[in-house]
Specification:
Number of helices of chain B: 6
Order of helices and strands of chain A: HHEHEEEEEHEHHEEHH
Number of helices of chain A: 8
Strand content of chain B: under 5%
Helix content of chain A: 40-55%
CATH superfamily of chain B: LemA-like domain
Helix content of chain B: over 70%
Radius of gyration of chain A: 25 Å
Shape of chain A: elongated
Strand content of chain A: 15-25%
Largest sheet of chain A: 9 strands, antiparallel
Oligomer: heterodimer
CATH architecture of chain B: Up-down Bundle
Strand order of the largest sheet of chain A: 1-2-3-4-9-8-5-7-6
Structural class of chain A: alpha+beta
Number of domains of chain B: 1
CATH class of chain B: Mainly Alpha
Shape of chain B: rod-shaped
Amino acid sequence: MDSARDFEQVYASELKPALLSLESRRKRVLRDGLFTFIPAAISITGLIIFFTSDRLLPSYIYIVSLLVLTVAVYFGIRCYNGNKDYLAAFKQLVMFAVVKAVDPDLIYKPFESVSEADYKKSGLFKDNYDRFRGDDLIQGLRDKTVFCFSELHTEEEVKRGKSSSWETIFRGIFFIADFNKDFHGRTYVWNDHDSKLNPLSNIFSSFDDGLEKIVLESTEFESAFKVYSSDQVEARYILTPSMMERMLRLRNELNTPVTYSFVDTNIYVAVPFTTELFEPSLFAETGKNKLKGYYETVRAIISIVDELELNTRIWTKQ
Amino acid sequence: MSFLFNAVVIVLAIALVVGMIIAGIYNNLIRKRNMVDNAFYSIDVQLKKRYDLIPSLVETVKGYMHHEKDLLTSIADLRTRALGSNDLNDKVKLANDISKGIGQLLVSVENYPDLKASQNFLHLQASLNETEEQLAASRRFYNSAVAEYHNAIQQFPSSIIAKRSGMQPREYFFVPDDQQAPQPISFN
C-alpha cells in the first residue's frame, strides 16, 4: 500500500486516544454485567428458597426477590445495549482508523458484508445455507482493480432427531475482485479434501452442471486443488502456469486453505479463519498488538490483488 | 434339453456383457479422440485470429519501422503459407515461425518510441497478447487431450480395440525453447 501510513504513527495519534475513550465504556459494560449477575443470582436464590421451602416463609421474601430481579433486568438491558454501543464505537472509532491507515481511499462499512447474491454466484460453497452473517465490508480500488471483501459466516442447520445444531459451511474472509482477463464460463479451484467447500462433493459424476474436471500440468497444483470448469480452454486461459504458481504461493503465505472461483469476470477468493476478526474483547483491554494484527490482516487481504497480479492489464480487458 | 438351453442363455449373456464392455471402451476411445479434435480446432481458431491480426500489425508498424522490411515481408509470407496449410506438422512449424517473427518484431518496437505510444499499436498489442494467451491455453488443452488419448490407446485392454479400429497416435503441439511464443509486453 503506497499510501499506507505508518501503523505506529496512526496508533499514537488516533488509535490510542480512541482506545482510551473506549476503555471507560468497556468498564461500564462490565460493571453493568456485574450488576446484572449479582442481583439475578440473589433474586433467583430467594425465589427458589421461597417456593421450595417446607415452611411457610413470609411473603416479603418473594416481593424483595422480585424487586431485586427488576434491578437485574434493568442492568441486564443496560449491559446489552452498552455492549452493542461499545462494539459499534470500536468499529467506528478504532477499526475505521485501522482501515484508513492501510489506505485512506478504502471504504469501510462495519455492519455490511458481501452480498448473498455474490456469495451464491461464487459457487464455492453449498448454497443451501440456513444462516448468513457477515460484517466489516471493505471496498476499494487498487490501481486498476476494483475489489471488496468482508468477514462472512455461513451455517447450515443439521437436524438430528428432535435436536438440531449449527454447522459452519464457511467462516473467514470472502474476497471479490475484478479479474484482469475476460471470460465467459465458470472455473472453480476447490480444495482437494473439503466436502463443505465443494458443492459437487455429493455428486458422483463430475460432469453434472456442465462442469468438467480439468487436469493441469502442475503436479503441485494438482495435489493442492481440484479444478472444475465449464470450458477446458478457458480454464487454462485463466490458470496459466504462472497464475498457478501465484495461487499456490498465496495459499502458503496466508497459511490457510484458500479456495478460488472465476465467475462472471470476477475472481472470488475464500480465506478461512477460525476466529472472529476485527472484534474487541469485552473481558480484556484491546491492545496495540491486536490492532497491529488487524492492520496486517487487512493489508494481507488487499495484497491478494498484487500477489495474483490482477493489475497486469495487457490483454484486451482494461 | 434344458441344459443346452441354459448353456445357450449363459453364453449369450456373456457375449452381451463382453459386447457392452467392448462398446464402452470403444466409445471412450472415440470420446477421447473427439476431444483431441476439438482441442485442435480451438488451436486452429486462435491461430486464425492471430493470422487475422497480422495484416493490421504489418500495416501499422510499416510506417515507423525502416530497418525491418525483410522481417515484415517474411511474417506476411509465413501467414499466407499458414492460411493455406492443412498438414498438422506444417501448421505447427509455421505457427512457431510466426511466433518467432512476431517476437522479433515486438523486440524491435522498443527502438521506435513513437510507434510504442501509438494508440493503434497499443490496441493491436493487447489483441496479440490476448491471442497468444488464448493460443497457449488451447495448446495446453490439446496436449493434455493428446496425452489422455495416448494413454487410452496404449493401455490394455483398450489398446487392442484401438489397434483394431486403426486409431493412430497424434502429434503433440510443442513450442521449441528458442521459439517460445512472444512474451506479453506490458504497456507501461
